[in-house]
Amino acid sequence: MEDQQAPQSAGSAAKVITLCGSTRFEAEFAEVSQRLTMEGCVVISLGMFSLPELPGYDWTVDRSDLKGRIGAVHRQKIRMADEVYIVDPGGYVGESTRREIDYAESLGKPVRYLSRERPTRTGDGPQV
Description:
Elements: E1 16-21, H1 26-38, E2 42-44, H2 59-80, E3 83-87, H3 95-106, E4 111-113
């Protein structure tokens, strides 16, 4: 599942890419982040995939405020990006991700999708 773009050269500024998608795809986020980093990109990802276990902390009391804070932080990450990359295995895009895509597009950010990338083929023939 390699990207078709050439790696960044040592002298050029690294492209900043913010990852968006469902928190259910933690393994895919890690894979995409690693690949893009190896290509020379600065990758901004999700800050957490689930609520941390904090002894004595009641997340049910803080949930609505927390969701708003996390959303605001992620919108800032989108503003910081040169490009937004949607981690959408099988093409799945939920409501929150759809809002992030709309926000990125409203800012004129290019949006790329994992599900739309061509997998790398092996063999003797040329890739199409």
